[in-house]
Design a protein that fits this description.
By secondary structure, this protein is of the alpha+beta class. The protein has one domain. It contains 2 helices and 6 strands; from the N terminus they run βαβββαββ. The chain has a 6-stranded antiparallel beta sheet, with helices on one face. A hairpin with a 4-residue loop joins β5 and β6. The protein is globular, with a radius of gyration of 14 Å.
């Protein structure tokens, strides 16, 4: 059996407890910084209760100055990947949201972190 591990720079993001609009805004903010497995035109549909995307943190774009991302309320995000890649993604989120780390689980080569993202007021 030959299972291939994802590249160390990839982070999977799962969003819950939010609207499709908020998921779209959050994914758009991350796409401005990192490559994504979703196309720009691939907007979250209203029906799921969770939205997922994978971001590659290897090629980081500089943050947009004064970037503001509208959210209707707090969003729960679970991010999973190598510790360095997860930290890069968390730093990017902190540029546009208030980020609270709710919990984390560390493995040998990966970390999973639950974040609560809030709009900046």
């Amino acid at each position: 059996m030959n299972t291939q591990s994802p590249p160390a720079s990839e982070v999977q993001v799962v969003l819950t407890d939010c609207s499709a609009t908020d998921a779209g805004h959050l994914f758009d903010a991350l796409r401005r910084r990192f490559e994504c497995d979703r196309e720009d035109s691939d907007s979250p549909a209203e029906t799921p209760t969770a939205w997922t995307a994978t971001f590659d943190t290897a090629a980081v774009c500089p943050p947009a100055s004064g970037a503001s991302v509208p959210l209707s309320g707090p969003v729960t995000a679970e991010v999973q990947g190598s510790p360095h890649a997860v930290r890069e993604l968390e730093d990017a989120l902190a540029d546009v949201f208030t980020v609270h780390e709710v919990g984390s689980v560390s493995g040998d080569q990966e970390v999973e972190v639950e974040l609560r993202l809030e709009p900046r007021g």
